[in-house]
Design a protein that fits this description.
The chain has 341 residues and is of the alpha/beta class. Helix content is 37%, strand content 22%. It is built from twelve helices and 15 strands. The strands form three sheets. The chain has a six-stranded parallel beta sheet, sandwiched between helices. The chain has a five-stranded antiparallel beta sheet with strand order 3-2-1-5-4. The protein is elongated.
C-alpha cells in the first residue's frame, strides 16, 4: 500500500505506452530475513531498466537475466504459456541464499507476470489518486485482473492461485505555515514520498515557499482542512506558532480521520491550547487526546532541520504503527518535544 508501488505502476504504464514490453514481479511470501516485505513490487522493462525492488538488489540481476532470456527464447508454441503469470522462488537452500545475497538464509517467493493489458493500471492509478483503497486480484491461471474496493488494514493475500494486493493513495502531509521549519519538514516529507501541501494565508511567509513538488493551498486553515477531507492517509501539523491560525486548523483536524495531528509549542502552551479548544470550541477529551503536542519525537533538537527530523520521524512511527497488525504502544517520551515557546 506504499505510494512507492504506485510509482512502479506509473513507470510501467509509461513504458508500455511507448512500446516497451514490461514484466511485473511481486513478493508474495518471505522466510527468514528477506529484505523486502510481501506486496513489494518490481517492474522490469525489456531493455533491463527497472523500477522498484523485491529484494533490495539481491536477486534483481538474476530476475532481469531470466526475463530477457525468456523473451529471446520464446517460440510461437511458448507464446500462450509465457504470457501467463508464474511463480519463482529464491533462496530455498542455504547455498542459494548465500549466492543471491539474501541475509540469514532468507527466502523469497515471487509472482512474475507480463504486463499485457494496461487498462487496470490506468484505472487503479486514477482511483488511488482520488484517495480510494483498491484491491487488485490477479488470477495465475488466466492472467486476468480485477479491481475491487478495499478497506484499511486489509492485507495482501495469496492462496497459490489468486494474488490479492492492496493499493492505497499517497500519504499526504498538510503543513500549516510556510516558515523555515515548515520548509525543512516539507523537504524531508518529499524524500519520504509524501504528497506535501502547505497552507499559510500570510503572504509575507508564503512568498518564500519555493520547493519543487510542494503545493500551496490557498485559504484560511480551517477552510483548507475541511475542504481537504482528511483521511487515514493524511497527517496535519500546525507550525505557525500563531494560535489564531494553528487553532483554526486543529479545530477541523482533530475531528477528522487524519492519522496524525500535531502542533508546535511548549508543554505549557499545549496545555493552554487544549483549554481554549475545550472551553470555547467544545472539543471533547477524546478529540484533544489525538493532538501530538509538543509535536515530534524528543531528540534534543535545536535547529529547524533537527526539529523537522523529529516531526517526520514521529509521523513515520505513528504511520507504521497504524499499519502494523500488532501495534506497539508508543513510548511516553514520544509525546514530548523540544520546549519551544
Amino acid at each position: 500500500m506504499e505510494s512507492l508501488d504506485l510509482r512502479v505502476l506509473a513507470d510501467a504504464l509509461q513504458w508500455r505506452r511507448v512500446g516497451h514490453a514490461v514484466t511485473l514481479v511481486t513478493v508474495v511470501e518471505t522466510w527468514g530475513s528477506a529484505p523486502r516485505p510481501p506486496g513489494a513490487l518490481l517492474a522490469v522493462r525489456d531493455d533491463g531498466v527497472v523500477s522498484g525492488s523485491v529484494s533490495g538488489g539481491c536477486v534483481e540481476d538474476d530476475l532481469i537475466a531470466q526475463i530477457q532470456a525468456s523473451r529471446q527464447d520464446r517460440s510461437a508454441t511458448q507464446l500462450h504459456t509465457l504470457d501467463r503469470p508464474s511463480i519463482l522462488t529464491y533462496g530455498v537452500s542455504q547455498e542459494e541464499a548465500a549466492r543471491f545475497g539474501l541475509p540469514c538464509g532468507g527466502t523469497l517467493r515471487l509472482v512474475r507476470e507480463p504486463l499485457v493489458d494496461t487498462t487496470w493500471v490506468e484505472s487503479l492509478l486514477d482511483r488511488t489518486a482520488r484517495h480510494e483503497l483498491v484491491a487488485r486480484q490477479l488470477s495465475l491461471a488466466t492472467g486476468s485482473v480485477r479491481l475491487l474496493p478495499a478497506v484499511r488494514g486489509q492485507a495482501m493475500h495469496f492462496d497459490g492461485s489468486v494474488l490479492s494486493c492492496v493499493f492505497g493513495p499517497s500519504w499526504r502531509l498538510l503543513l500549516i505555515g510556510a516558515g523555515q521549519l515548515s520548509q525543512a519538514a516539507a523537504q524531508i516529507a518529499l524524500m519520504l514520498d509524501f504528497e506535501v501541501l502547505v497552507c499559510d494565508p500570510r503572504d509575507e511567509y508564503a512568498a518564500t515557499l519555493r520547493l519543487d513538488g510542494v503545493k500551496r493551498v490557498m485559504g484560511m486553515p480551517d477552510d483548507v482542512v475541511r475542504a481537504l477531507v482528511p483521511d487515514a492517509h493524511t497527517a496535519i501539523v500546525a507550525l505557525t506558532h500563531d494560535p489564531k491560525l494553528d487553532d483554526m486548523a486543529l479545530l477541523e483536524a482533530l475531528v477528522s480521520d487524519a492519522f496524525y495531528v500535531g502542533a508546535l509549542g511548549s508543554r505549557r502552551n499545549q496545555a493552554s491550547r487544549k483549554e481554549r479548544l475545550a472551553e470555547h470550541f467544545g472539543l471533547t477529551p477524546a478529540e484533544l487526546a489525538r493532538l501530538h503536542g509538543p509535536v515530534g519525537l524528543f531528540i534534543g533538537a535545536k535547529t529547524p532541520a533537527e526539529i523537522a527530523i523529529s516531526i517526520m520521524a514521529h509521523i513515520i512511527q505513528v504511520k507504521n504503527a497504524a499499519l502494523s497488525v500488532q501495534s506497539v504502544p508508543e513510548p511516553r517520551a514520544c509525546l514530548l518535544n523540544n520546549p519551544l515557546s
